[in-house]
Every structure is written in C-alpha cells, then in structure tokens.
Design brief:
159 residues, globular
Length: 159
C-alpha cells in the first residue's frame, strides 16, 4: 500500500475495544491510542491491506492520514494532512512561503505536494521509535495542518 492508494470503501470505524487499549509496545496499539486522543466526533477509521494499515481521522478542520507500511523496524510511519488544493493563486509566492515555513515552523514535519494538494507531511522508520515520538509526529502534523489550512486557502485559494 502506498500513500497514493486510499480505498475509502474499505475503511471501517475504530472499535470501542481498540480505542480503550493502553500502549503496550505494539505499533498499531500506540498509533490507535494517539488517534483516540486526537480524533474528534468519533471520526477515526482504519483500512488494513497488504500487511499495512491506513488510518484517517478528523482534527479541527483537516483530515489526518496515518500510514503504517508494516510492523517491522524497517517499515515506515507516515502522517499527512492536506491543507490546500492545487493549482493555487500566485504559486511562486505560495512555494516561497511554504519553504520559509519549512525552515522554522514545522519541527519534524514539512510542507509537501501530494496528489495536487499541499500537505503537511512527516515520515519515519519504526527503528527505535517510541510512543511519545509517535504521538509527537501525529500531533505536529495535525496541529500545523489545522492552524495553516484556512490561512493558506484564504491567501492562495484555487486559481
């Protein structure tokens, strides 16, 4: 499963049993625990395919996606949230603005372009990852995306 593949039809809501689990060293449990703390309005959904997982949840005004390619230490955790559809007004100015924010405002995340959308993005291998790191990555992406999406849409909106 790649970032570009999201089969919305196969996503199902997280169960109450999953939401109540404590972190026990398992990547999936850690991710679902963090999602349970961040999601709004019981919005979390998960899709399981090809040994990987893809979660989606609502945080403020954005949908946040969390992809786990597997459960081995060489697999990756990727988190992203779309903030602006492309094409946009004054794209050269937008790109400069995004690069400037990448330098000082995004911590472990960055702005990127994915499927004709500007996204807040973070990716990391599972090697030696901890529950606090998983929480931090997901919280950073969700918070930055929620804070910047309305501003970027207002300033650069659809061309």
């Amino acid at each position: 499963m790649t970032i570009n593949q999201l089969d919305v039809e196969t996503i199902s809501p997280l169960s109450a049993e999953t939401e109540g689990r404590a972190i026990a060293g398992n990547y999936i449990e850690m991710i679902e625990t963090v999602i349970s703390s961040l999601e709004q309005d019981q919005s979390a959904m998960v899709s399981r395919a090809d040994g990987g997982y893809l979660w989606k949840f609502r945080y403020g005004s954005v949908d946040v996606f969390v992809q786990l390619t597997g459960t081995e230490e060489t697999d990756t955790l990727t988190v992203w949230a779309a903030v602006l559809k492309l094409p946009a007004k004054n794209e050269p100015k937008l790109m400069r603005h995004l690069l400037e924010m990448n330098c000082g405002e995004t911590l472990e995340a960055c702005f990127a372009i994915l499927n004709d959308e500007v996204v807040v993005f973070s990716c990391r291998t599972l090697t030696e990852i901890s529950a606090p790191e998983i929480s931090r990555i997901m919280t950073i992406v969700a918070t930055i995306a929620d804070e910047k999406d309305d501003v970027l849409k207002a300033d650069y909106g659809v061309a």
